[in-house]
């Protein structure tokens, strides 16, 4: 009897929270007037921020994949000194707020020798569009590494051992055996990384700034227009971000651990 009541209570709470979450998300779409949303979406500011978000997110996602694949493979396959510390540091950005990460990056690229070296070569990160990409990379990379690492862990190492026994080098085995078997997980990680890049707010705001029609991404557009009291533009930005996130989750659920 206790088991049944606990089961019912668990299911009830599950449906209750799901219903409340559904209502809150639906209100973003159903409450605003369609004409207001449509006019806001075709506003030059919205188009500009959408372009900046898409271009920067595509670049950031490519760089994130370039780092997450070898990093995820190293963590999943090799033992090395300080591995647990490395994993903890890589997971830190997931645990603390984006604003903290943005502040850390602002200090790194603005107040340290790294910033001075980049400045010497004419590379400016702070309050520039390059800062958007850097902020997105540092925000999305930990998520991509976790997914890629989990993908490699699910692949039986025996396949790699057989490949090595047949004379393939370690890199050839990785390229011809492991990587093709991990393609679904890598694709899923790229989708999540892209969605995280598109939705990055606090890190971008701190490092690149929220400059109107310059370092303005979709989340910045939402923030700025809420500050101005322009609710229509803010809601439209939220709807676009919601649709991107929804599509990303659908694709992630379809391909994570599955096959193309």
CATH topology-level fold name: MetI-like fold
Mean pLDDT: 89
CATH architecture: Orthogonal Bundle
Q: What's the CATH first level?
A: Mainly Alpha
Structural class: mainly alpha
Share in β-strands: under 5%
Overall geometry: globular
Strand/helix succession:
HHHHHHHHHHHHH
What is the total number of structural domains?
Answer: 1
Please mark out the parts with pLDDT under 50 across 5 or more consecutive residues, or reply none.
Answer: none
Instruction: Calculate the terminal CA-CA distance, rounded to whole Å.
Output: 45 Å
CATH superfamily: MetI-like
Q: Helix count?
A: 13
The percentage helix is over 70%
Largest sheet, described in full?
none
Backbone CA Rg: 22 Å
The overall strand count is 0
Pfam family, one: BPD_transp_1
Domain ABC transmembrane type-1: 50-252
Subcellular location: Cell membrane; Membrane
Family: Belongs to the binding-protein-dependent transport system permease family.
Describe the overall structure.
The chain crosses the membrane at residues 52-76, 88-109, 121-145, 185-208, 228-252. One of its GO terms (molecular function) is ABC-type sulfate transporter activity. The protein is an all-alpha fold. It has a single domain (30-257), classed as MetI-like (MetI-like fold), CATH 1.10.3720.10. The protein has helices at 2-30, 34-41, 44-77, 83-95, 98-111, 113-120, 129-153, 158-165, 170-181, 183-199, 202-207, 218-228, 231-255. Helix 2 crosses helix 13 and helix 8 (158-165) runs antiparallel to helix 9 (170-181). It is globular.
């Amino acid at each position: 009897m206790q088991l049944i009541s606990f089961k019912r209570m668990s299911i009830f709470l599950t449906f209750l929270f799901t219903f409340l979450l559904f209502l809150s998300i639906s209100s973003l779409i159903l409450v605003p007037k369609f004409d207001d949303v449509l006019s806001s979406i075709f506003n030059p500011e919205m188009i500009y921020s959408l372009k900046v978000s898409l271009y920067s997110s595509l670049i950031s996602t490519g760089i994130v994949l370039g780092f997450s694949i070898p990093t995820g493979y190293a963590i999943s396959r090799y033992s090395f000194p300080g591995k647990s510390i490395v994993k903890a540091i890589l997971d830190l950005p997931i645990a603390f707020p984006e604003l903290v990460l943005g502040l850390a990056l602002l200090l790194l690229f603005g107040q340290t020798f790294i910033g001075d070296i980049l400045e010497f070569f004419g590379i400016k990160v702070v309050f520039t569009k390059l800062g958007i990409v850097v902020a997105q990379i540092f925000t999305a990379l930990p998520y991509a590494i976790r997914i890629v690492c989990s993908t490699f862990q699910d692949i039986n190492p025996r396949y790699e051992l057989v490949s090595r026994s047949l004379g393939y080098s370690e890199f050839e085995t990785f390229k011809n055996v492991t990587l093709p078997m991990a393609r679904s997980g890598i694709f899923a990680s790229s989708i999540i990384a892209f969605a995280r890049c598109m939705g990055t707010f606090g890190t971008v705001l701190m490092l690149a700034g929220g400059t109107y029609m310059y370092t303005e991404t979709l989340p910045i557009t939402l923030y700025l227009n809420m500050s101005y009291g322009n609710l229509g533009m803010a809601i439209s930005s939220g709807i676009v971000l919601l649709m991107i996130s929804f599509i990303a989750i659908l694709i992630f659920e379809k391909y994570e651990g599955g096959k193309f």
